[in-house]
Design brief:
This protein is mainly alpha-helical. Helix content is about 75%, strand content about 0%.
């Protein structure tokens, strides 16, 4: 892949975490309060079913269990642990714990994909975590054992999903829309019983609520995850992982613009560190496909 095409792939993939960074704003301003699992379920399951109804292709052979594993790691378990962490930790601490994800991808990529660990990668991990800390951490932030554990498990789920998606690729002849639909559907099915057992349904929904759920489903899941999995097929695992740090950066900017939140010198330095970490890990020359021969097309 040429340098220009790699840059285009990075830019398009970055749109996914940019959209995910708007989740907090949409949730607080448009959705019913205290229904995070419902939001996660309605974000994943309808989007997956729409894609499956459009493509009408189900997994075959080993891809039944592979799609299930990827759907749980990338969507179902990740969303669940994300919201458990959000309930037990201040948002800044939860984001900081989640920023360990590129470190996990770095280690798993070395073990499962044969990727090299370079000094620039270690520097990027330090810059990324430090930048997120400056962006979102507040002096009054408190730790909670359950929340920290959930945040670490969420980061492990997403990191494992990224690496396994790179390792397995996509089955021959299966479109990106189908591949995304499998995972969103599995994730939504996993979340559905947990949601029904854990959260009461809202007594009524306003048009604002419906618009918020629609945004999370169609933009935050369907379109964003298609872009994300497209990017994973074209970029190294670590490069894609660092792009996810754009999410807290976007959330901070949106909070400043729309919610009147503060944005001081520390946040600006943190934003610069996050951007530097992302740039440092993006490929700049011809990339070679790392997926095994049984994988399959990446376009």
């Amino acid at each position: 892949m040429s340098g220009r095409r790699v840059a285009t792939a990075s830019a398009l993939t970055a749109l996914a975490p940019t959209v995910w960074g708007s989740t907090y704003l949409v949730t607080t301003e448009f959705l019913p309060p205290d229904r995070p699992l419902l939001a996660a379920t309605l974000r994943a399951l309808p989007a997956g079913l729409i894609l499956l109804m459009f493509t009408r292709v189900l997994p075959t052979g080993t891809w039944w269990w592979r799609a299930a594993v990827l759907g749980v790691l990338n969507i179902g378990a990740f969303f669940y642990f994300l919201f458990v962490a959000a309930y037990h930790l201040p948002g800044g601490v939860a984001a900081l714990v989640g920023s360990i994800q590129p470190v996990i991808v770095l280690l798993l990529g070395a073990m499962l994909l044969g990727d090299r660990i370079l000094p620039a990668h270690i520097l990027a991990c330090v810059l990324g975590a430090g930048g997120v800390a400056l962006l979102v951490l507040r002096p009054q932030a408190a730790l909670d054992g359950v929340g920290v554990a959930a945040g670490l498990l969420g980061a492990l789920c997403m990191a494992s999903g990224i690496v396994l998606t790179k390792r397995w690729g996509r089955p021959e002849g299966v479109s990106l829309l189908t591949f995304t639909g499998w995972q969103l559907t599995v994730g939504g099915v996993v979340l559905l019983p947990i949601t029904l057992l854990s959260e009461p349904l809202p007594d009524q929904l306003t048009w604002g609520n419906i618009a918020g759920y629609g945004y999370l489903c169609l933009i935050g899941a369907l379109i964003a995850y298609v872009l994300w999995f497209r990017g994973l097929s074209r970029l190294p695992a670590l490069a894609a992982s660092f792009l996810s740090l754009i999410s807290p950066l976007c959330a901070t900017v949106l909070g400043y613009v729309f919610l009147g939140q503060s944005l001081g010198p520390f946040q600006l330095v943190g934003a610069g560190a996050v951007i530097a970490a992302v740039i440092l890990t993006q490929p700049r020359r011809r990339a070679e496909a790392r997926a095994p021969a049984a994988s399959v097309r990446t376009s």
